[in-house]
Amino acid sequence: MNELLEIYEQNRFFIESFLKDTILNTTSNLLSEHNLKHLFEYFKSLELIYVVDNESKTQISPNYYRNKEDGNEKGKSRQYLFKKIDFKNSLMSTPYKSSATGNICITLAIPQNEKTLFLDFNLKTLLERLKLLETHTVFDSTTKLFYALSGFFMMFLSFSILAYSVYEIFKYGELSIMSFFKPIIYITIAIAIFDLSKTLLEQEVFFKSFKKDENIEKKTFVKFIISILIALSIEALMLVFKISLKNISLMSNAFWLFAGISLMIATLTFFIKTNKNI
């Protein structure tokens, strides 16, 4: 999914110019409502066409698909489209997941006096047709399936760890301050694993955001490391308590553990400072 967004952003001007020039110059005779379906013959990536009234911002035509026509959307408000598309500088939306087709698409707006024609293009197919993307269906499907299974399995692990942390509190039958330390560590690790699985599923399996966050990997890495540092700090604190109660001569072990944690915190701080956009 990230690859699609990166290629689109790198070639946005070319893609927009190609679509506008082709539609306005080559197929301008097809822009009347009774000829709209013929546009599908020129654009293999085109998947949806509809017309919106400029004054009321409501849809005044059915949804025209490649092989069917749906009149249920007629009369619905499309106010959000006029906010999503910058009509002064660009007539194209950012990539988004279409509620009509379920595919990642971009919308091109063609103003026409009192109405506006909206054309939805399948982003993946469009990039392939323009020779900007080369795909292998079997490999892509296998990769997506692997990421989905891995993400959901990590989510299952995080919930299992969360449930086990509750069991840890009550398994000895009596509560003490020490009985809460390990569950807190387990919960912290569960949060770290859940955040990692959530990011994996959002970025590689499901499409959530309209635009790619270039720092999402760094943000996820920082959140994961912070969670691990919290768990290690609590473990180090537990070690100090245990050593102080049983054998004070082993306190140097706790010192080296704290020293290692401090070094990790210093390294993470340096990483964040050198990546100010995180």
pLDDT averaged residue by residue? 81
**Residues in β-strands, percent:** 5-15%
E-strand count: 6
Euclidean distance between termini CA atoms: 21 Å
Main beta-sheet annotation: 4 strands, antiparallel
Question: Strand order within the widest sheet?
Answer: 1-6-5-4
How many alpha or pi helices?
9
Order of helices and strands: HHHEEEHEEEHHHHH
Gyration radius, rounded = 27 Å
Structural domains: how many: 2
Low-confidence stretches: none
- What shape does the CA trace take? elongated
Protein structure class: alpha+beta
Helix content: 55-70%
Walk me through what this model shows.
Helix 6 packs antiparallel against helix 7. This protein has a four-stranded antiparallel β-sheet with strand order 1-6-5-4. The chain contains nine helices and six strands, in the order αααβββαβββααααα. The chain folds into two domains: 128 residues, Beta-Lactamase (2-Layer Sandwich), CATH 3.30.450; 138 residues. With 278 residues, it is of the alpha+beta class. The model has no long low-confidence stretch (mean pLDDT 81).
